[in-house]
Amino acid sequence: MTVEADRVPEGTGLELLRSVLSWSRDRDYVGWDYADGASSRLLSALPFDSGWLTLAVQETVKRAPVNLRPLFLVEQRANFMGTALFAMANLTTHRLTGEDRFLADALTLGNRLLTLQSDRVPEFAGCHRHDLQGLDGRTPAGTPGIVGTSYGVRALLRLAECADRPFDDVAHTAADFPFEHLDYSECPDGARIRYKPTETGDYYTLNANALGARTLLDLHADRPSSRLREGATKILDYVVSRQTDVGGWYYRDPPGASHLSMDSHHNGFIIESLVRYEEVVGDGRYDDAIADALAFYRDLFEPDGVPRFDESEPYPRDIHASSQGVIVFARCRDLATARRILDWAREHLYAGDGRFYFRKHRYHTKRTTLMRWCQAWMAFAVAEYLAARDLRDEPGVEP
Fold first, then answer.
1. Is the pLDDT score of 8 beyond 80?
2. 63-68-70-71 Cα dihedral, nearest 10 degrees
3. Phi/psi at 74 (nearest 5 deg)?
4. For FRET with 300, which of 6, 123, 204, 341 sits at 20 to 30 Å CA-CA?
C-alpha cells in the first residue's frame, strides 16, 4: 500500500514520521547523545586527566534538568546507531510514499555508517565516537560493541535490497565479531558473549547477548549458515535461562553487577530478539518464554500507554521506553497497544515541530532533544508501526 504525498492527512502517523525526519535532516542527522559529556572540550583543555572529574562532568550533563552541553562545549556528532536507525526509517518512508528523497537519504546514511564503524577490529562493528567514563574505567571512543553492531547490520541488509553498493557483503563481515572478539564461550545453559571486547568483569549483559544472537539470525536469514544459527540458538538459550519468574530480565547476570533492574527498553530488546528467532527459524523453541516476557513487558506500560522505567519505578518516563514499546508491540502485531504508547509519547514528549523530548520526571520534563535517543528511535518506531499496519492492510488505524 503506497500513500501519495499529497493525500496524507495532517496528523497521521506518516505525517509525524515526515516531521521527525525533516527536523533531523535539517541538522544532517547530527546532534548530542545520551552520555557524551566526557567529550567536553573544557575537560580536554585541562592540564591533567582525572577519571573522577570526567565521570562527574559526564553524569552532571546527563542528569541535569536542562541541557548543559553547550555550556560544557560538548560537540554534536553523528552517532553510529542513530545513523542506522535513521537509514531504516528513511527506507520505510520511501516505501510508504514512493518519494526518492527518502531513499537518497537512506543511501547517504548507509555510506556514512561505513565511515562511523570502529577501526579497532577488521569486521564491521559499531561504536561510539566519544569516550564513556565508568566507575571501573574509561571506554575509549571507537571501542566496538555488539548493540550498535546489531542495528548497523540490520540497516546494511535492508539497504542492500535497493542499492548498487554491496552493503550486504560488509554486513556479513560482522558474523565473526561475536566469535572472535566478544569471548564467545559455551556454558551449561548455552553460550554467552561480552558486550564489548574491553569487558573483563565476571558478568554478562543480557540484552547485549540477545542482540548478538539477533545479529547472527539476521545474517543467517540472508545467507543460511549452520554456524550462525547454532551460535544464535545457544546464546538465546543462555538468555532464556536467566528469565525471572515474573517474565522479565535483569540488565546483567548476575543482577547485582548493575544498578539497573528489569528496565523497559532493555527488556524490549530481548523480546524483539526472541521474536526474530521465531520469524527466522520458526520451531517454537521460545514460545513460552516470549509469552511470559510479553505479559511482564505489557505491565511496564499503563493501560493508556504511559511507560514505566522498570518493574518497580514509574519515573522517569523515558522516550526510549516509549519507542521500544511501539517497536515490540508493532512487531507482535498488537497495533492497538503500539498506538496507545505512541499517542502518549506524542502528547507528553513531543514539541510539535518534529522533535521529541528526552524524559518526563514526576515534577518536570527534560526538554532536551538527543539525536539518537529521541529522534532516531522515534523515527524508527513510527516507521516500524506504519510498516506493521501496512502489512495488516489497516489504513483506518491511525496513531
1. no
2. -130
3. -85, 125
4. 204
